[in-house]
Design goal:
six-stranded mixed β-sheet; globular; two-stranded antiparallel sheet; single chain; alpha/beta
Length: 230
Amino acid sequence: MCVLCDGVTDSELLKGADSYIGSKYGSPFNIVVVCLDPGKDSKSFEERRIQNEGSSPDNPHMRGTQKTLGALLANEEIGEEELFSHYAMVNSCKCFPNDGTMNRAPDDFFVNCRKFINEEIRLLKPDILITQGNQAINAVAAYMPKRKKKTFYHNIANEMMEKYPGYFPKSYFDYLIEKYFRYVEIDNCLVPTICPPHPSDRYGKWAIFQEAYLNVSMELARRAIKKIKE
């Protein structure tokens, strides 16, 4: 049992949120979502699968996750109720203070858990990573190359502008790529990484992203995955 965070908080901890891995993970490709802490939802692997698969999301976080998966898998014949079967989700913090509040876990918890999430991601061998929130970005930052390699994304954007002439200006793609697109490098392989606002964002950032950038960013991501696999 991990004891790295014992003593960080005076409250008892809800410990050990297992990763969620859908029963159809890997079809059509390996999608990994890196989220924040588990909140009070500290369930086992099987409990999380039963809870997620075939159910309707009951909070903004999971509704936003479903919207993201729907946009990413738009070219596949996958029903909305099946989307959660096709991805994996890992928490960038595994435990949560059992103090009766819904506040976010302390920053120290996220720092201590990075050693675990990095190994989880390596084992899952993602074709694409989607982070949710700044702490999720920090969790995978060790895998991000120091030099930005975004020419690849811009080349794909040029192809999309040729396909949809006049619909999306170059400035739109320049902002989209600079704001939301990264890479991580795992075992010498570059993995497209999308960093949208957290779906539970209270300041309207997720709503703007969903309305203006979600569908286009996920099409760009699909094309990136395809090119890397070729």
